[in-house]
Amino acid sequence: MKSLSAQLLPSKQVEILDIWIKLQLKNEGLRSDLMSNDALKRESEELLKTILEAIRNDDTTDIKGEAYDKVVEVLAGISLSRASNGFSPRETAYFVFSLKEALITVLEKNIAEPKELYPEIVKVNKLLDDFGLITFETFIKGREEVILRQTSEITEISTPVIQVWSGILALPIIGTLDSARTQVVMENLLLKIVETESTIAILDISGVPAVDSLVAQHLIKTVAATRLMGAECIISGIRPEIAQTIVHLGIDLSNINTKASLAHALRTAFSLLKLEVRKVGEYSKNTHA
Amino acid sequence: MITINSETINIKTEQDAVFLRNRVSEYANKIKMGLVNQTKLLTAASELVRNMLRYAGGGKVLCEVISQSVLQTGIRLTFIDNGPGIPNIADAMKDGFSTGKSLGIGLPGAKRLVNEFQIKSQEGEGTSVTILKWKNG
Known about the structure:
The complex is a heterodimer of chains A (289) and B (137).
Chain A: H1 4-8, H2 13-26, H3 37-57, H4 69-85, H5 89-110, H6 114-157, E1 162-165, E2 168-174, H7 179-196, E3 200-207, H8 213-228, E4 232-236, H9 240-249, E5 257-258, H10 262-272, H11 285-288
Parallel strand pairs in A: 2-3, 3-4, 4-5
Antiparallel strand pairs in A: 1-2
Chain B: E1 2-11, H1 14-30, H2 35-56, E2 59-67, E3 73-81, H3 89-92, H4 106-113, E4 116-122, E5 126-134
Antiparallel strand pairs in B: 1-2, 2-3, 3-5, 4-5
């Protein structure tokens, strides 16, 4: 024989939904800015319908059962969309836990005998707690996806190659150079060298917090690849403390053109291209000679 | 020698290495370590963390702020992993020696950057490296 809640609850869908929505609207954490009341009602109705169907078909409280597959799916979908829309974990959890309150209220109203009521409440409790856990898990997963997406976005945008003069490229590197990053940097740089027919590339490492042997190795490789393309590479932005550290560490950068500042590197680049910068009306020493 | 502050940081991914670096730099700032010494310590830590991630797949780092006298304070970092260990430490401490494809200056370089350096390793059990950098040293 079916348990009382399995018989009772599906027939009370409208009443449960009504109580549930009221509870959600009453809650202080309601985010009407993130979600309209209509959308909330639609979401609640969909979830409630699938839950009640599952309860009707499967009387156990084992949510791994086949009947609950659909519920888990709907719940995960709601939780994921909430995570990416910026809901807090508390607001998302309340969505599920307020349903528990609604279900228990309905059970209380319809089952007068405490002895019969108790096991039903325990059952509903267990079921909704499991739903809560699923919500939580998928919520975190959703958030992690957001973070991963942002990480890859940052890698993309943080390596711009700038053409500072015709024939001169500059590449400011900010943050740590790891293997994946170096790959992106090198690829962008080499492509841009071909595209702009540049002969000089300036790698500025002012924004790199520490130059250890791996970073140095990556820099050496980038310089070697640039040279193979027929361009000269200048590394600028070597701060005094970085210079001392590189010496102590025993990294040999002597066959790489290095400069302290980007301005200095640019001046070197100009002289390599036989260009000079002077004020209007001022004659250069060379023309005097 | 007394320990003023200690904290353990777990290292599993490259992002943890960034976190460790920031944390060590915070401690170094707190004891007013100079920029050059700070950079040396951070670079040494960075080398050792990379080794840990590369050869042992991670581990943990014990960060300690220690004090020897009123004037002399410093930071001690202990890198502990349960990786394959180093079969021959003398070789590993040589410049240019590498079992991977790196420059082979990580360990000897890190030793040159700090004041005290200790390495212990048991093949098949793991490696532990302790480095210490004094505020003025």
